[in-house]
Design brief:
Elements lengths: L2 H8 L8 E4 L4 E4 L9 H13 L8 E9 L4 E8 L1 H10 L8 E4 L1 H4 L5 H11 L10 H13 L2 H12 L11 H13 L13 H15 L11 H11 L17 E6 L5 H15 L4 E6 L9 H22 L3 E6 L4 H5 L7 E5 H7 L28
Parallel strand pairs: 2-4, 3-5, 6-7, 7-8
Antiparallel strand pairs: 1-5, 3-4, 8-9
Length: 385
Amino acid sequence: MQSEQYQEFADDPEFANHLIEIDPRQIVKYRQTARSKGDENINANKYYAQFSRGIRQTVPVSVIPVGWCEENNWETYECCDGITRTEGGKKMVLTDDGWKLLASTYQHYVLNYTAEDWEDFSDRANDHNSGEANTDDDMIAGIRRRVANGRLDRVVRAAAQTKGMTGVSLKNNKKEWIELAAGFFVDASKGVYRNTRRTKKWFKNRIEEELNKTGKIIQKMNKKSEEWNLKEYVAHGGTDYEEKTTAKNTSNGEKVFILGYSKHLTPNIIGNAAHYHANHPKNDITIIMHFQQLADKNDADLEEMRRSAVEYLTKMNSANNLGITRIVSTPQTEDEVSTKGRDRVVEHWSSIMSNAHQYDVRDNAPLYYHPEDDIPNGKSTQQHN
C-alpha cells in the first residue's frame, strides 16, 4: 500500500478500526508477486535502516489472518502487500524484540478482497508516483498472468456488458476484445497501470503478443457443491438415479461418489467403493469428477486431471474388483457450463464402454463418449435424456 492508496482508504472511518500493530514474525506467508528487478532485499535493508533510526512507519502493510501459533500465542497473517516493509521489520526485531509493524486488515474484512483484487491492488501500489515504478517487465508479467488465468477474458466480458456491447469475444471480435483489455490497464480512473508512461497502443501490442504465444484464453473454472453436482447428475446423467441432497444415499440401485480432489483417489474413493461393493455387489457405482483445487489451473490442466483420474480408477477397478461401473464429470469450464441437456454430464468411462470398445485411456482413447454412438440402433442399456 502506497501513500496515495492509504489516503483513499483513510477517508473511510472504518479504516482506522482495522489498523493493528503486530510482531513482524506473525507474518508467515507472502502473496505478492516478486518484482522483475529482484531488489526486495535492498529495499528491505532501506526500511530496516529507517526503522533503526526511529522513523515511524506511517503506511501499513496489508494482511489477512491465516491461523494461530500456539507456541507464541498469537495470530498469524499472510502479507498481501508490503513485503519489503515486513522484511525490514523482521530484521528490526532481531535487535529490538518489542518493535511492532503497522498492518491493516481493512481490505480483508471490509472490502472483502478476492485474489484478483489483491493482484490489482499490488500492481497499482507500484504504479503510484511515490512507489518504485513498474518496469516494462513487471507490466508484461501482469498481462501474462491475467491472460494465463483467464482473468483478462472475464474483465473484457464485464466491460463489454457495461458498455452494452454484445457478442464481444476473442474469437469473434479480436480487435474490440484487445481494445477493452488494454483499457483495463490504462483507464484514467481505474486502470491497473494508469500512471505508466506507456501508451494504450503499447499495451494492445503486448496483449496481442501474449495471446499469440498462448494461442487461447483460459476459461474460468467453476467449482460447485455436492448438492449441485447431484442435481446435475439426476437431470442429465441418463440413469434412474434420483438422490438430489446427499451422496450418502443409494438411489434405484446406484451409488454415487464425488471425486473433488486427486489426492482423495486413495484411500477415500478406492476404499469407499471397495467397501460398498463388498456389501452391495449388485448395485452400480458411479464416480462423478468435479475438482475443487483449481487455483492457477486452466482447461488443459482440468482435462489432464480427469484423464489421470480415469486411468487410475479403471486400473484399480480392474485389478481389485471395486464394482465401479461408470465415471463421469459435471461442467466446470465456462464452455461446459453453457452447454444444455445431456452433454452437461460427460461420460468418460463405463463398464459397457469397456466391454464394447476394449477402452484403454493409456492409448489415448476418446474421453468424451456416449455408449449409444457405436451401438446398433443407438440403443444403450444406460438411459440418456
